[in-house]
Here is the input.
Amino acid sequence: MTQFTIQAALSWAKDTLRTAIEPQWQDLATPELDAEILLAAVLKKTRTELFTHPESIVPTLNLERFQKFIARRNGGEPIAYILGKKEFFGLEFFVDKNVLIPRPETEILGEKVLSFLKPYDASTILDIGTGSGIIAIALAKNLSEKHQLYALDISPAALRIAQKNAVAFRVNSHIEFICSDLLKDFIFPTTPQSPLVIVANLPYVPEGDELPPTVRDFEPASALFSGRAGTDIYQRFFTEFAAGIFVQNSKKVFCDICFFEFHLPQQPFWQKFLPTLFPDATLEFFSDLSGKTRFGILRIS
Here is the structure.
């Protein structure tokens, strides 16, 4: 096999990746960054270290692995799936094709929940649609065990990944993972502590929306799409929790506050729909770092 220096390997990879970009997604493509991240991972170096000694020869086995990574990336596979990891809230989570890749903007949702809980020594938190467990685990790392955490997902495969991450971050004893279709299969084992907080990051992409191929062809469609307008699953969720949540051998309890993430154009719909279920609640919206309205807070009491 021909020997490659770090500089030559990067140059080859960047040229290879540029040729595979679909024209309509040119603005989102980052072939230089992708090549650097993948080579740094293979060589167990930082990206900065790659440029410290660009003349260094890439060992044959590392080069072969790098070329395989580039081939996968050239086919559109996201880097997070290639490397099996993605950072969120300063933590490195394991991810694979069974879960969505964590988005940086979702960190804002976690920050809002933590800000709300700051005055409370205890609470009960339901993370609905936990996926890889990023929100529940981020909260568990920042809250004492007096805060009860339940992480729900309809996908057994996603829950296995969430549990794997919880073990890795040593918070598995703090979170109860439950396979449930929204709230349908969930019953509190004991009366929950107050406040009762729900965090929901459910599928909200309208069917038929054009998505980048890295998302469209690789991330689980069941975790992305939610009917023609993208609101079907959330509508069912809000209807379920408006009716109350069962407690074992007891009556129902009701949520105090719900934090949720949604598709940008859906704000007018939620402004009309949610008051029909929660006429006495207050509803507020807040933006992501780009200034786009993406999150809601429904205060029930």
Residues 132 and 223 are 11 Å apart (CA to CA). The chain has a mean pLDDT of 93. The first helix runs from residue 6 to 18.
